[in-house]
Amino acid sequence: MLILGIDTSCDDTSASVVEDGRRIVSNIVSSQSDIHAKYGGIVPELASRRHIEMIIPVVDEALKKAGVPLREIAAVAVCHGPGLIGSLLIGCSFAKALCYSAKVPLVAVNHLEGHILSPFLAAPVPEFPFLSLVVSGGHTSLYAGEGFGNYHELGRTRDDAAGEAYDKVSKLLGLGYPGGPVIDRLAQKGDGRAIDFPRAYLPETYDFSFSGLKTAVLNFLRSRSGNNMPDAATLDEGMIGNIAASFQTAVVDVLVRKTEWAIRKKRIKRVALSGGVAANNELRKRMKQMGAERDVEVFIPPAVLCTDNAAMIATAGYHHFIDGELAGPGLNPRAYLPL
Fold first, then answer.
1. pTM of this prediction exceeds 0.90
2. How many distinct structural domains can be found in the chain?
């Protein structure tokens, strides 16, 4: 069974054909990083306009690469939230029009469920129940997955998502956008214990908070410049590497520790990591080390499946489709959509 997935939740236009919810036949992603880099973050209006330009060629390329005509597609799965409302509107409108004209069933997918199920696109796959840590630019949440379509949120960020903190710290350091990859690269050359940045563990909860960590980096830069404004230009390469490494260590410490708490409390010995920050080398390494120490299975998809992509939407859509959960022409995108 072939499902065509479509994702326009943020700044990437993506379409994918997935067979039986497991095998990727094609997965096309059109990035907008170059467009938004000059602004230090995503500009929603520009993202929406680019989606309009790319949605048709990206879907066409996904079908062409898969070598299947639209008539062989069992259903179209589209991400309808959460995300940027203008971006979501493009994907939902296109998917509804496509399904109406081609008489193909439509399935609505929550973006977060797509991330939770992304490990099912690589081998080995986790068995239920498992803990799912979703870490991206817009989300940092911990879930207990009991079955397909059955997820219980244990905790979420109370302010900035981890990926958002990466982007903001990168901007403070003058490193550009997106911040995650460049900080990850520079951190490998620095000392992660050089600067004692705070960790907001929020005891007795599985919630996260990274706003204070971001502010601590800002205050450190101000203290180095000797005035009220941070001046990253005065820092040498070694100091920038230490700041990047110390910031990253603080983020990863919290993510790993919170996951450990959930493992002990819920007595679940399987953990899946997903979301754009799951591509981070230090997080992947530390999570695997924790799993080995605690005899816990850790499932991390390839980096290309951690960032936003339509393959994960198609996988989630497959399970909704076989359960008969279809959407109609009245489907509307939702910027805020709890799982």
1. yes
2. 2
